[in-house]
Amino acid sequence: MKTEEIMKNGDIKTNKYIIFAIISSLIIIISYIFNFYTILEYSVSHKPEDWSHFSSYVGGILSPALTFISLALLIKSLNLQNQANASLREELVNSKQTEKIRAFEALFFNMIESQKNQFNSLNIEFPSGLKLKGIDAVLKIEDDIELMRKQEKSNDYIKKYLSNIDSKDQIFGLTRSFFVIVKNIEEKLSNKEGFDNKIRNSHFMTLINFTDFSQLRLLMISIQFLNYHSTSYLKNSTELGIAIKETGLSFELY
To answer: Among 64, 117, 132, 178, whose Cα sits 20 to 30 Å from the Cα of 44?
Structure first.
């Protein structure tokens, strides 16, 4: 509940107490008049001592009730203040979390754009001397791996093939860029920072959906066959693995 709503509800309840006090006072005065003026047919006195007795009578009856109402209002006021303070603290925490998200997402989308540019500059030279870029290079790598699988080549054989065509560490660089983004999601949106797995999953899905599909397939190849710190980290990331499965991909596609 927002602070304004808490204070508004408190004002409504305070008004009820005030109305109750006014009604109680009127009932006592009217009862006094009805009893002494109407039933007993006493006339209005002009003696100061009679009015003094009247004020003592009214005060004696109303004083406990008004004291109780004052205490109730004081307690209610303290409770409302505590609720308002709690609400302010919650709003402050939410504001901090929103600022954290904004700061992270500025970096997050810059890193996605950077890896996109990195993939667009991918240029692979194959053993035959053929040079291919970007998507065409990934398709050629997939065709070669499929052929090697038909020839029952081992994972180590495919690993050597990938190492040979990646003499300029371009596949390594793309894998590392993706790893850095994933690591940032897990660290800067961690439970320790006040976030949960739903927030992280949302950003993992955004990362996957904003990454070119050919680049994703090349990453799956790298994670499956190459032994880097980055590939080990990505393969062992439980939350990334869940997001990858949600998209129909796998770390064991080939």
So the answer is: 64
